[in-house]
Amino acid sequence: xxxxxxxxxxxxxxxxxxxxxxxxxxxxxxxxxxxxxxxxxxxxxxxxxxxxxxxxxxxxxxxxxxxxxxxxxxxxxxxxxxxxxxxxxxxxxxxxxxxxxxxxxxxxxxxxxxxxxxxxxxxxxxxxxxxxxxxxxxxxxxxxxxxxxxxxxxxxxxxxxxxxxxxxxxxxxxxxxxxxxxxxxxxxxxxxxxxxxxxxxxxxxxxxxxxxxxxxxxxxxxxxxxxxxxxxxxxxxxxxxxxxxxxxxxxxxxxxxxxxxxxxxxxxxxxxxxxxxxxxxxxxxxxxxxxxxxxxxxxxxxxxxxxxxxxxxxxxxxxxxxxxxxxxxxxxxxxxxxxxxxxxxxxxxxxxxxxxxxxxxxxxxxxxxxxxxxxxxxxxxxxxxxxxxxxxxxxxxxxxxxxxxxxxxxxxxxxxxxxxxxxxxxxxxxxxxxxxxxxxxxxxxxxxxxxxxxxxxxxxxxxxxxxxxxxxxxxxxxxxx
Length: 481
What we know:
Blueprint: H1 3-12, H2 24-42, H3 55-59, H4 63-77, H5 86-91, H6 102-113, H7 117-123, H8 125-139, H9 141-144, H10 151-161, E1 169-171, H11 178-191, H12 198-206, E2 209-213, H13 216-228, E3 235-237, E4 253-256, H14 281-291, E5 300-306, H15 308-311, H16 315-326, E6 327-334, E7 347-354, E8 364-369, H17 389-395, E9 417-421, H18 422-426, H19 449-474
Parallel strand pairs: 1-2, 1-4, 2-3, 4-5, 6-8
Antiparallel strand pairs: 5-7, 6-7, 8-9
Helix pairs in contact: 1-8, 2-8, 2-13, 4-6, 8-13, 10-11, 14-16
């Protein structure tokens, strides 16, 4: 049985729970409680689970006895007085079952037990779990996209920042820990962890990767994802913009896609190490990211931000200036629309390196326009590795001094790759980095009628999704608000 077939079989189990009123997103959480026990057995790592709650004992029970036993299992595994493992406590923190019908619970457990786990182990249990989360994000646009960044984008950001063995890496908006998992896989492929000495190996497993996630249910998925990829770094649940996040300092690499918007009720971040106070989440995250990098001239970050970070005035302009002083903001990638599940939000990736001093570190900003004259992106046309090939070649990750513009005012005014000096940027209104030069119109459109209709359908669905999200956000807001 292939990896994709196993993922589909697991996902199909959600159909069993519809009568119990379990949503797709809740289903992923409910499935995690059960899968952790099964996957612990498959990996031979049940030692931290009380014997009475291990998989073989769970699968032996039926009906009402199973239902009552399972409810107690969830309570006890989340109780640090009963189970000492912090990871297990985190996965089962405040856990409760939404599966009310004993027959449904029994069917799911026995179906999972009957899957081809030999094939699953061969392809990697971590890959299986990530496939399940990706399925969730694809099926459930509302909410799921807040913690699931497209894997081709994550992998590209990792390749361009080139983590090294011994680097301390962090994601202050960890989501399901996808960036850190990808960085770990990149390093394992590049260096082969089996060749490391014991101290190096222990560092990679326990210290190299860390993060913080605000939402408890998402943190639960992150802990599971980390575990199934053989990682055991510091992964806290809490608000990175509060004092609880001040432990995140002195990193070699930061990779992240912070949440967009403002803090609830217009509240400002409560950390006392932010230079500029604002209620804008992404501006606050940007500050804590560049301030968390080592001041060694090598520490680097790749961060997804919405367009308003590039042009916001007031505190936004001050933060951009501070970023370009403290760091070498060497690259901005203007991402195409339609690649995130929050449809209509236009995004970018900022690549920067922290300087040894806090002044005048940015000399040139290179901007790559991947937004104009691009193919249509959406559920039927997802982002893939090939879409970044031209950008990666232009980026010159091994030696940025070899970069060459493809833009030319006379010969190629629609060249995607263009350099702007710091003097040119400082002369712009609000020091805006929201720069476009490519024309919207393509020279020709050789797409088929089917492709054009698909794009129209995608855009129509995006509008409907945006309206639904807006209506949801407006619920409960009175006239005074």
